[in-house]
Amino acid sequence: MRLASFKNSEKLKKQEFEARLPALRAELLELQNSLRQADFPVIVLFAGVDGAGKSEMVNLLNEWMDPRWLINRAYDRAMDENAEQERPVFRRYWHDLPPRGQIGLFLSAWYSQVLLGTVAQRVSEYQFPRHVERIRRFERTLAADGALILKFWMHLDKRGQRKQLRKLESNPATAWRVTHTDWAHWAMYDRFVVAGDQIIEATDVAHAPWRVIDGADHRYRSMTIAEHLLEAIKIRLNSRQPTSESRAYTPSPVNWLSSVDLKKSLSKKDYQRRRDRSQGDLNLLCRQAKYQKISSVLVFEGWDAAGKGGAIRRILRALDPRTYRVIPIAAPTDEEHAQHYLWRFWRHLPSSGNITFFDRSWYGRVLVERIEGFARPGEWQRAYHEINEFEQELAESGIMICKFWLHIDQDEQLRRFEERKTTPHKAWKLTEEDWRNREKWADYESAVNDMIQHTNTSHAPWTIVPANDKYTARIHVLETACEHLRNTIGGT
Question: Which residues form the Polyphosphate kinase-2-related domain (predicted)?
Fold first, then answer.
């Protein structure tokens, strides 16, 4: 149904509504209890014209269901405008996603910016496809992980919207809900309809379909949405989870690690000279980035005992501790495990002008989770594409991404393991898992080559660091970080 030809006509009599409501509420509560054991979240998004009952619908669902297992999120149009500019646009939505087994109700969410921007002509015809593609990526990523996405466009024709706004305005108890902005939007009703049609057409897909709801009669819209929600969750609970499918994965034809010269070395004197110079350069560059509000993400991956922590510490010595955070990544907590695997990384992205260091990262999906069987083949094969889109989102928001793989050979790793066993302040680093990983060296090497092959992009390139010599590795990391930051600052 196109919004341009929409006419309000649906009604539900009070007697029929009250007769159907008790059974509906009982079913909703029973279903909600069953959902708590499910391995997927439900994401319900309300959009549409002002006055069509979006907020009232969220309130009703909280009344009819158990609010302890509902997550309500609404995004005020003017709220946190500055904060919104500091981070990737979708960070706030990732942060607010419901965990598996719960329902999230979203108002004025990821469609508001493109809708209002298009109506106000802040989003041009050229920019519109980019906004839409960002939404499609977001919903596609969530749906591929099993999320049930339900989108309701609650609509009124122009006459019906004016009638509803006047009705609310005439009642002292509801007059506060009608603002000057609402009437300004009504004056631009035709623009809203055109923009709404464009958005619905571009984002109405099988894994995240739109349903247009007649918003004039409160009983009809409430019953229709609640019944649709009930039926959609029932179907998902009674069906098998969508099968994870790979995205044209092929093993890497290139052995990226074999070309690394691990014989490189530096004298202590040369190391100290280049370290001091690089740390001075890095301090100046980071202060310039802070001034220009350029954030940075530095990702450190590598073999166990390859020197990731040491390389990070040499960078930290050049920085103001108020401007950075180091995030060590281990096995996910229960809270993290209940979300999409990228969720915990979105939470730790840097604010404007600051830096986040990830000591291991989202690449665990295609490394340890792949090798140890924590991710099914379809999941880790699909992850290359998801990771590229995630990093593209960061780069488009102005974040500099610098990714390091610290490479050592097996003999050097064994030497460092033995050294750790006899060094009191390092012994804690050595675990049984480290020894087990050595037995799977060939599997991990293959996974690393695939990772580099499939995620080495222009906006987030990999730097393979020869790390048999620690001095060489640390200088390589410092100088590469300076180069990337210098290029980013120069390109703004």
Answer: 12-237, 266-486
d(CA 403, CA 363): 10
Whether pTM > 0.85 for this model: the answer is yes
Question: And the tokens for 157?
Answer: 């024709």
340 belongs to a structural domain: yes
Backbone φ and ψ for 194, nearest 5 degrees, come out as: -60, -45
Q: Count of CB atoms within 10 A of residue 214's CB?
A: 21
CA–CA gap between residue 208 and residue 193 (Å, rounded): 20
Cα-based torsion angle of the residue sequence 58, 62, 68, 71 in order, rounded to the nearest 10 degrees: 0
Confirm whether 324 is domain-assigned: yes
pLDDT at 82: 47
Residue 475 CB neighbour total at 10 angstroms: 24
Q: Is the pLDDT of residue 248 over 80?
A: no
Distance CA 404, CA 307 (A): 11
Taking CA atoms, 352 is separated from 116, 270, 286, 317, 349, in Å, by: 25, 35, 12, 21, 10
Counted domains in the chain: 2
Residues 229 and 362 in one domain: no
